[in-house]
């Protein structure tokens, strides 16, 4: 059974960089796509981006200038960095296995999720 | 305002059937595969349907998915109180080059 667990600071100051790590157990990170998804309090889901095990990435266009997702295969972890945060970035952040893969018609889904971690942006 | 439109809420009695719609366009639902997620209160989303109509292992056949044109539908039969949750559709948008989720639909089992 694949398990994902997010970790990182629960409070980040405005203009600083949000950093989260997702630790994967029960399976190797050296296969599949791995994503970050967030959910502001009381609102819907927003896909942030994914990293493929090869290291290639794809980010939500609205966040692309501020997002970096990276992989550490030695630790079976992947990470999210979101720079220049504001209060609008306050959300529960989920890591998940999955992404989107192009073909004639693009497929995509997220089959395993972490429990989520609340990150509040406030001074 | 989400690019994918879902009804904010639906309701039905235990044992009954309900459908949840997800309306989009040719740049997303019309040409790509849809997935559906169930989010029980206070928990992470759970994959219910992928590739428009495929159920992952362990998902009961009470849950079904379909797609027609630029709309997708999640169906739930034999409603149980434990089905009360928020439901989200998800799909890739080719024009926007980004993954999208619908705004979510809250299901109440009366």
Map the helices and strands.
The complex is a heterodimer of chains A (123) and B (110).
Chain A: E1 3-7, E2 11-12, E3 18-25, E4 33-39, E5 46-52, E6 57-59, E7 67-72, E8 77-82, E9 91-101, E10 107-113, E11 117-121
Parallel strand pairs in A: 2-11
Antiparallel strand pairs in A: 1-3, 3-8, 4-5, 4-9, 5-6, 7-8, 9-10, 9-11
Chain B: E1 9-12, E2 18-23, E3 35-39, E4 46-49, E5 63-68, E6 71-76, E7 85-93, E8 98-101, E9 105-109
Parallel strand pairs in B: 1-9
Antiparallel strand pairs in B: 2-6, 3-4, 3-7, 5-6, 7-8, 7-9
> What string gives the helices and strands of chain B in order?
EEEEEEEEE
Q: Multimeric state of these chains?
A: heterodimer
Give me the Rg of chain B, rounded.
Answer: 13 Å
Report the major sheet of chain A: 7 strands, mixed
Helix content of chain A: under 10%
Give the termini distance of chain A in whole angstroms: 39 Å
Strand content of chain B: 35-45%
Q: Briefly note the structural class of the backbone of chain A.
A: mainly beta
Average predicted confidence as pLDDT of chain B: 96
SS element count, helices of chain A: 0
Main beta sheet of chain B, described?
Answer: 6 strands, mixed
- Span from first to last CA of chain B? 28 Å
Q: How much beta of chain A, percentage-wise?
A: over 45%
The pair of chains with the biggest contact is: A-B, 21 and 28 residues
| Structure class of chain B | mainly beta
Nearest-integer average pLDDT of chain A: 95
Overall number of strands of chain A: 11
Low-confidence stretches of chain B: none
- What is the count of helical runs of chain B? 0
The overall strand count of chain B is 9
């Amino acid at each position: 059974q694949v398990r994902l667990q997010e970790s990182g600071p629960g409070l980040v100051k405005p203009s600083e960089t949000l950093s989260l790590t997702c630790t994967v157990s029960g399976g190797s990170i050296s296969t599949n796509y791995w994503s970050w998804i967030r959910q502001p309090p009381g609102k819907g889901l927003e896909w942030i981006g994914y990293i493929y095990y090869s290291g290639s990435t794809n980010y939500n266009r609205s966040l692309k200038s501020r997002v970096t997702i990276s992989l550490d295969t030695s630790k079976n972890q992947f990470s999210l960095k979101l720079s220049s945060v504001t209060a609008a970035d306050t959300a529960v952040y989920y890591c998940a296995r999955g992404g989107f893969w192009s073909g004639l018609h693009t497929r995509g889904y997220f089959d395993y999720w972490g429990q989520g971690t609340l990150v509040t942006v406030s001074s | 305002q989400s690019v994918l439109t879902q009804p904010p809420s639906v309701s039905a009695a235990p044992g009954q059937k309900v459908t949840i719609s997800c309306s989009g366009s040719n740049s997303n639902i019309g040409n790509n595969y849809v997935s559906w997620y169930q989010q029980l209160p206070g928990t992470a989303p759970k994959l219910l349907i992928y590739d428009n109509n495929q159920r992952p292992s362990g998902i009961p056949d009470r849950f079904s998915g379909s797609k027609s044109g630029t709309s997708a539908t999640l169906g739930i039969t034999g409603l149980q109180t434990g089905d009360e949750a928020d439901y989200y559709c998800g799909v890739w948008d080719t024009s926007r080059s980004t993954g999208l989720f619908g705004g979510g639909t809250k299901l109440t089992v009366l």
